[in-house]
Structure formats: structure tokens, C-alpha cells
Design a protein that fits this description.
The complex is a heterodimer of chains A (147) and B (131). Chain A is of the alpha+beta class and 147 residues long. Chain A has a single domain, classed as Hotdog Thioesterase (Thiol Ester Dehydrase, Chain A, Roll). Helices cover 27% and strands 41% of the residues of chain A. Chain A has three helices and eight strands; from the N terminus they run H-H-E-E-E-E-H-E-E-E-E. In chain A, the strands form two sheets. A six-stranded antiparallel beta sheet of chain A has the order 1-2-6-7-8-5. A two-stranded antiparallel sheet of chain A has the order 3-4. The radius of gyration of chain A is 16 Å and the shape is elongated. Chain B is α+β, with helices and mostly antiparallel strands and 131 residues long. Chain B has one domain: Hotdog Thioesterase (Thiol Ester Dehydrase, Chain A). In chain B, the strands form two sheets. Chain B has a six-stranded antiparallel beta sheet with strand order 1-2-6-7-8-5. In chain B, strands 3-4 form a two-stranded antiparallel sheet. In chain B, a hairpin with an 8-residue loop joins strand 7 and strand 8. Chain B is globular, with a radius of gyration of 14 Å. The chains are: A alpha+beta (147), B alpha+beta (131). Chains A and B meet through helix 2, strand 3, helix 3 and strand 5 of A and helix 2, strand 3, helix 3 and strand 5 of B.
Amino acid sequence: MTGELDFWREAMRQGMGQTAFLRALGGELVEFTNGRGRMRLPFAPHLVGDPATGVIHGGVLTAMLDQACGMAIGSALRAPTMMATLDLRIDYMKPAAPHTDILVESQCLKIAHDVAFARAVAFQTTPDEPVAIATGTFMLSPVEAKA
Amino acid sequence: MRDIDALLAAIPYCAWLGLGARVEDGALILDMPFDAKLVGNPVLPALHGGVTGSLLETAAIAQILWETGAKAMPRTIDITIDYLRTGRALTSHARAHIVRQGRRVVSARAEMWQEDAAKPVASFRGHFLVG
């Protein structure tokens, strides 16, 4: 039972966590346990959305926040489950400073039968000075056990 | 009207995503070819939610630049994305429209689809600071 759960958590960390897109962005999972977690994205030239200022594209933050919300939920689930984002709301508090890493902290707020709720904050100094905050809702589908 | 395709090519993140723009029946449409790096769920495989969000936000920004002729890049205030269907390993398209243009803020909506425009993959609304 515990072994199965550990296996799924590991798969979650390596498979769902290490998505191709996160790797391509250059993002890293720092830690996810029991419904909370942290990710990091080092600054890179291919993330820039405004060449005049060097500020990274909002879509980069969307990707980090989406995945951080999903991972927080994943780390809180007690059974193997597939997740799909249902909706995501993002408020951009201030432009991200160029040439500076982005950190994201996320928290699972509630796991219901079919849906789960999470929030995340992206920042560069402390979470009290957010670059962007997100609220996400995810659909849950149980993974059938294979014989 | 501005050459949005050239503008996208000059934005590093948009060029990296492979975004292109064209005008069809008087509407600006963004295209994003599938690429293995865009995957968020390797089992299906499905596009990462952040890829869908990136295409939609870019479509809204491109529409604002195209329609208003704004010189500076619009700054995103907030966005909401509804994910309606799985984004599959196919070319994606997006189209945006301005709902209201104020002096400082533009309210825009956008939709993304793949093979069938009547079956959107995601819909988007957002507010942008201009000027």
C-alpha cells in the first residue's frame, strides 16, 4: 500500500512533474510534499517577452504557476490520479525583473471528489513581493490499477 | 497595419514557441505548430497548460498591437483561462478580439482551437494596460 503510493509519488515527481515543457523552459522542481511545494526558473534569454525591457513573457509565468498548482495537488493526493487544468486565473502584480530567477510557491487548498483547488505565487525576492499570483481548479480522474 | 508575424519573430519567447501570424478574412490568427517540447502530459500526450496560456495571451497582445497600433508592449494585468478540451499533438490556432478599449486598459478575449474552430481547446479573457 505504502509502496504503491511511494511508486506513484515517484512517477508523479519524475513523469508528471518533469514535463517536457518545464525542462524546455529550464524550470526545476525544488520540493513538493503534502500539498505544498516550490519551483524555480532561472532567467534565460529564450523566456523574454519584451525585447525592449528584457521582461519575461507572461506565458512563462502561466506555465510555472499552472504546473506548481498541479504539483501541489498531486503531492496531496492519496491515490493515483490524473489531473487536468479546468481553469486558471492569474494576476500580474509587477513585471519580473530581467536576469533574475523566478521562484514559485504553491499550495493545495482543497481536494474534492472530482475537482481540486490550488493557489500559487511567483516572486523574485520574497512571497510578500509577488510578481504574479494564481488560483487554479483541476479535474481529477482516478488512474485504474493495472494487473 | 503592423506586420505581426515579424513582430512575433522578434520576441524571443514567441520565436522559441514557433508562433506565426496571418490575416484570414480580416482577422488576425496566430498559429503554433506542435513540438515535443510543448508537452505537459506525456501519457496522452497533451500540450502543457502554460503553452495554451502562452498562445492565448500572445494572441490578445498581438490583437491589441495590430488593432490599436500601440507602440509599447501592452502589459498584462490579469488573465483567466478556461481549459475546455485536451490540447493534442497538433498545430494550434488562436484568435482574439478587443471587448473594450479604454484610455488605459483594454479588455480582450481569445480562443484557441486545433482541427475544428467550432471545438475550442481553451478560452481566455484578460485585461491589459496600454499607453
